[in-house]
Amino acid sequence: MIRKTRIILEMIKFEHTIFALPFAFMGAILGSIVMDGKLPTWPQIGWITLAMFGARSAAMGLNRLIDKTIDLANPRTENRALPAGLLKSAEVLLFILVSLALLIVASANLEPIALKLMPLAVVMLVLYSYTKRFTWLCHLFLGATIGLSPLGAWVAVTGEFNPAAWVLFATIALWIAGFDIVYATQDYEYDKRVGLHSIPARFGITGALWFARSLHVITAIGFIALFALTNLSWLYLAGTIISITLLFYQHWMVRPNDLSRVQTAFFGMNGTLSVVLFAFALADLLVLHRW
Question: Which terminus of the chain faces fewer neighbouring Cβ atoms within 10 Å, N or C?
Fold first, then answer.
């Protein structure tokens, strides 16, 4: 059982939750303060954490299950748990169902609108893995799917939307899409050969990297726009400057003729960025505003 658990955690890349979870917390905290003038409660934070774990685990499990045949044929992914035979499809399916149940229970303990909108999130989680089969916009679809985490957290504690919530959603969606494009350059040759759709396969590696840079320019603008739309002040702005620097440093690390540092750019820089921006936003609200 311990061995299976380790394999499952490796399959879903549990450590990558760091990409989206800080922004989900940021959505919850900003939403609660902007809309209600107070911090979210600890039970709300707890249920949001469980909802995030359930949603992301289900999404990764679905992706691995749906892409089992594709992963088996791709040299980069042939050693993943399912194609390598370390897990059975039935075991992964059971894990997906348990994860979805966790998402449902967590959503039911938040604002009523969270449970009502939850099926939309599930549909997007399922559809994402199929988008690479018919459109090179698959990266944007992934971004929109993960962008639901801060938007969903905002709504889960406030019960309503706000312009700042939509800016946060769009900013995270474009951030995710941008670095997913960079990550997808690793599969450029394979995608071209088997007919899978991606921005690198459609526009080439150089074009894809420029596409990602453009999305991240808009991401930087979005981070700054949040400063103008919320109660955040100079401390958040300082964190924004650091985060934007990290954002563009990863593009300096990855060149069309040298993709050897894609993994470092993808995992190291982006994980650090999300934690830094959330930490500065939280410090801004707790220290300067004394919530």
Answer: N
SS3 258: strand
- Beta-bridge partner residues of 258: 255
Residue 285 in this model has a pLDDT that exceeds 60: yes
Query: CA 78, 83, 86, 87 torsion: positive or negative?
Result: positive
Q: Name the CATH code of domain 2-288 (choices 2.102.10.10, 3.50.50.60, 3.10.50.40, 1.10.357.140).
A: 1.10.357.140
Backbone angles phi, psi at 135, to 5 degrees: -150, 140
Burial 59-72 (b: 16+ CB within 10 A, else e): bbbbbbbebbebbe
Residues 198, 136 contacting (CB under 8 angstroms): yes
Q: 267 or 274, which is more confident?
A: 274
255 φ, ψ (degrees, to nearest 5): -120, 155
pLDDT digits (tens, 9 = 90+) for 209-239: 999 999 999 999 999 999 999 878 999 999 9
* Cβ atoms within 10 Å of 80's Cβ, excluding its own: 18
Give the pair of three-digit tokens for residue 281.
Answer: 């936003």
Q: Are 11 and 60 in contact (CB under 8 A)?
A: yes
Please name the residue that has the structure tokens 């936003």: 281
Residue in the block written with tokens 């930087």: 220
Determine the 3-state secondary structure of 24 from DSSP. helix
- Please report, for the chain, the start and end positions of each structural domain, with discontinuous segments joined by +: 2-288
Q: How many CB atoms lie within 10 A of CB 3?
A: 8
In this model, does residue 264 exceed pLDDT 70?
yes
- The region that residue 13 occupies, defined by phi over 0 for left and psi between -120 and 50 for alpha, beta otherwise, is left
